[in-house]
Amino acid sequence: MQRVQPRELPERMSWARALIFGVGFFFITALLIGQLPGYIFDELTASTLQGMEQGSLALGLVCLLGFFIVEVIVLLFDPKPVLPPMLFIGLGLVLFVGGLALLLWAVLTPVTAGGVTTNSQYFPSANFFWNPLLDGNVLWLEPGAVDFVLIAVVLLIAGAAAMFYGSLALKEQSDPDRSDPGTTPTIRGLTVLGSVVLFAYMLFSMLVDPNALAARINPACPTAIDLAKGCGMITGLFVVNAIEGTLLAIAVAATLGAFALRLHYLMRPVRKRVMAPFYAVGVNLLPFGLAFLLLWFFLYPLLDWIHSWSLAGLGDWLTVCARKSVVPGSCTFSQQAGYIVDAFLTMNFFVLLMAAIRVWRTNRNMVIIGSFWVAAVLGLATLVTHLHPEEALIALLLCGGTLVMVTIWTSVARREFAVVGERNLGCLGQWLVVGTCLFVYIAAFAFFSIPGFRETEPNITFTPGLLIPGKGAPDAIIVFILMGLLAALQFYFLVRNRYKV
How many CA atoms lie within 13 A of 47 on its CB side? Predict the structure, then answer.
């Protein structure tokens, strides 16, 4: 008798899981097509290219950081360690200690330039010169072209990642279990800790203005460093920022740890299928990192060369100089040059996203693992591109929020096509899907209205200080809380009714 082969069931997922996947892809699309090209456009066409230099260095280092961590994972788990795990633990310890020492030195060491005293975060200072060229201070690099805090943060993350994955690989040498335990209590605890601290910071920033609180902590030296008046590095604002920054750093570390552990568990049972796509994603970060670093180092010679283009007046069309006698010191790129760069980046990112849709059916693992990793790298890029003292706290908040989203995304992806129910969507289900998407969309607008980045225009009004000093506009946080609660309520009923796609 001929045996009848059972018919394979079509792959399905629940609407709740599909909604989480959709939200994740929405944020990746918004960051790649909207935020990142917009950031580069604003810095490229600003009155000074100092921000573009700092941004290019940050984007280059964060891409190299993503590549480095991918290489660590591949060398440790493909499928067995190629190099001893203790080697990575030792390397990670060196990087972490070096990054911590550099961070403390950059933040606590005072530097006086032009009568103004600051810390040693940026190099070169205005009064430091070494082989100046093209009106630069060090070669053609202008003041502030190098951010030591940025380099320290990258070293800290690289060192922590190497020690973390090295420890996991060392444990696996004596543990034969390669299953996916799902969202373990450790992952849930780290995610909850990070989320609670991030939300507490949002409430605190709504109620208290840091400058007003700094004036109450140290009335003699509230914000500015003035050595003549006895105001050193430890001002009132420094104390406030140090406390808030430490708590937010703990939140980011917790959410980053939860994501790294969840990604490890997700890949562990299927390493033979996902390691090659994961390596491909990491390798593609390397040329981006090198390109941004080359742009950072040769930005001013490039500007000087483009300004000299006389064919059809391209030099004057692509560059703008405040003084024709000071080139490229008084020059920047024109709006037209910014539009060209913006169009190039947006087009390539759009093609990449469309290619992901095409590859979804043939190599779903690459799209899923690649999306997780790109989203995490974009979250870290938000942090490292905004480490200016006035923006660092908000950057930590946004980075932590992105990592929470990616951690939830990886938890859902454990069985992204599991049939969890047999109910058709129906009219009520359609309203739940549409309503949840709408509330998530509005909550996202409110969340991204909280930061005070120089290149970002808020969508909803937000001014801290509702209790101290007694005035403020907490609209963005109130909208975020209300829309988040409504989205969670609708999502609960969407999960409870077990609708299938």
Answer: 3
